[in-house]
Design a protein that fits this description.
The protein is mainly alpha-helical. Helix content is 50%, strand content 3%. The radius of gyration is 18 Å and the shape is globular. The chain starts with a strand and ends with a helix.
């Protein structure tokens, strides 16, 4: 059986009524100020159930940019934890800020939450000058912190990140184009199509992977940022 790779169109933001994956985060308003939203009337907030997939994904990107302001250290501390571990849950929920939301109800899976921050960091640190060759970068330990309590299958989480690492190392330019593309625009779709042959090569034989565009972008953004950081260290 050949290795298969597929992209499924799924919104990056889930409504409150949808199943909530363990290890996810929900921005909540302060109890004493539940009707206030960033100084604006509640009517300015959007209903998440009426958002298109493109609107939802763009809103998530804006949320990350807002949260990053003045909180880079906290974001890095969260990203240093193992996905869906107890420390990740504690630090991630602390970053889930209602003031940065643009809808009444938002829910992030840990994977989506990590991806939006890795992409925001990549845009901040490597928008104008970036490594384009990762051949000298030693293997990254995607299992770091796995000994801490985890609510999901650690092996699967590590495997997904190794898959994304393979994609980025094989086609650094294509990975960057994907991560830097405008969400839900033709450029993103073209970037995904261009990367699919590489993704198929990186899938383990006799395995099948299915991703939403949001999750594919999140995984590639994480690998791209971490490899870029390591490449900068190697070159210095």
């Amino acid at each position: 059986m050949k290795a298969l790779f597929a992209l499924m169109l799924i919104a990056g933001v889930a409504s409150a009524a949808e199943p909530q994956e363990p290890g996810g985060f929900t921005p909540s308003p302060p109890p004493s100020d539940s009707n206030q939203f960033d100084g604006r009337a509640p009517t300015r907030r959007k209903d998440p159930e009426r958002l298109s997939d493109a609107e939802a994904r763009k809103m998530v990107q804006a949320y990350a940019a807002c949260t990053m302001r003045g909180s880079v250290r906290e974001v890095r501390a969260y990203l240093a934890t193992f996905p869906m571990s107890a420390p990740a849950g504690k630090l991630g929920q602390a970053l889930a800020r209602f003031k940065c939301a643009r809808v009444d109800r938002m829910y992030f899976t840990d994977g989506t939450f990590r991806g939006i921050f890795y992409e925001a960091l990549y845009r901040r640190d490597f928008s104008s000058k970036w490594p384009s060759d990762f051949s000298a970068v030693p293997p990254i330990d995607y299992g770091k912190g796995v000994g801490v309590e985890t609510v999901s299958d650690p092996g699967a989480l590590i495997g997904l990140r190794r898959f994304a690492d393979c994609v980025v190392r094989t086609d650094p330019g294509g990975a960057r184009t994907f991560v830097m593309s405008a969400i839900a625009e033709p450029g993103e779709r073209n970037a995904v199509q261009a990367l699919i042959p590489t993704m198929q090569k990186c899938v383990i034989k006799d395995r099948e992977l299915k991703f939403s565009p949001s999750m594919a972008r999140a995984l590639v953004a994480e690998a791209l940022y971490r490899l870029s950081e390591k490449a900068t260290e190697v070159q210095s």
